[in-house]
From TrEMBL:
InterPro entries: DUF8054_C, DUF8054_M, DUF8054_N. It holds the Pfam family DUF8054_C. The chain crosses the membrane at residues 21-42, 48-66. Keywords: Membrane, Transmembrane, Transmembrane helix. The keyword Transmembrane applies. This is Uncharacterized protein. Residues 12-88, 113-158, 180-251, 256-294 form the DUF8054 domain. The keyword Transmembrane applies.
Length: 309
């Protein structure tokens, strides 16, 4: 009996619309529809109304929706302020790392002025008549050395190895990012890292989902982290929230695509998340279109990263 229930659950379950992928506005809309349908059915017969309500809730729980096409309808008709309350886009992160007074104190003690810190350790320098910052030649060389070490030949991988390494396929080869590198970036143990099945690179690091807009962006973050480690032992002491934002900002300084090898430039694009579409300023590979960094054009200078490339 239990095997039949499990098989039925597997047939109904839609992981792309449930769990971490659940669209909250869609769920709310579908629950309201379910209540309305059950009230109509209950007017005919009370038992029928209860059955409709219970069945609808089960479908919403396992499938993420009751009415097909709800994500499209919510994007089209719900006001942006409502969607924004539930969804923050494909590369947003909840980076709040000070749930206790101890963490807040540690953050205050170890936080850095990002631009000054990166200049002091030799990662960036002023350029273009001192109006921008760029990688120093030494750090740029280190970064590409790290990227080269991440590139491996295209090989078949046993699915059982999926949580030991994160493989991101590119047209010019494959980047292999070790789980140990991801866990080091996010101050967690390798055993807590789980690869998420999504259309973009994502891992569960402890209790949080960490995302990147493309496979190239993930590879750059891993290479940046390793390159910065070689410059200063203080890098690992920078608070996690700030460290992650610094990596994102540095990603915007890359001028050659690590995947297709073409130039990198900025363009305004529209990206889609589970519940809405967003206008973003995207730093992207001009030849292959891979996004390296996505920024809200109205909030491009926010965050603790401390500099705006």
């Amino acid at each position: 009996m239990s095997s039949r229930i499990s098989s039925l659950q597997d047939m109904i379950l839609r992981e792309e619309y449930t769990g971490e992928n659940r669209c909250v506005p869609c769920t709310i809309v579908n629950l309201l529809i379910a209540v309305g349908l059950s009230m109509i059915a209950g007017w005919i017969q009370v038992e029928l109304g209860v059955a409709v309500l219970v069945g609808s809730i089960l479908l919403i729980y396992f499938r993420g929706y009751l009415v097909p096409g709800t994500p499209t309808l919510t994007k089209r008709y719900l006001p942006n302020r409502v969607l924004a309350a539930f969804d923050k886009g494909p590369e947003s992160h909840d980076e709040t790392e000070w749930e206790t007074l101890e963490k807040l104190e540690a953050y205050r003690e170890n936080r850095v002025d990002a631009e000054s810190f990166l200049q002091e350790i030799g990662a960036i320098e002023p350029c273009n008549m001192d109006t921008e910052v760029c990688f120093t030649s030494n750090f740029n060389e280190r970064l590409w050395e790290e990227l080269d070490t991440l590139k491996t030949e295209n090989t078949e991988t046993d699915p059982a190895e999926g949580n030991k390494q994160l493989e991101t396929g590119l047209s010019e080869g494959t980047f292999t990012i070790e789980i140990e590198t991801i866990s080091a970036i996010y101050d967690t143990s390798p055993s807590s890292i789980r690869v998420e099945e999504r259309d973009y690179p994502a891992v569960r690091a402890g209790r949080r989902i960490r995302k990147w807009p493309s496979e190239e962006a993930l590879a750059i973050d891993a290479a940046l982290y390793r390159a910065l480690e070689t410059l200063s032992p203080r890098w690992d002491q920078v608070p996690l929230k700030q460290r992650v934002e610094i990596l994102r900002e540095l990603r915007g300084l890359v001028r050659q695509c690590p995947g297709c090898g073409g130039a990198v430039g900025a363009d305004e694009s529209v990206v889609e998340s589970c519940c809405a579409t967003y206008d973003v300023v995207a730093v992207q590979c001009l030849d292959c279109g891979a996004h390296l960094l996505e920024k809200d054009p109205e909030k491009s200078d926010e965050g603790d990263g401390g500099f705006n490339p």
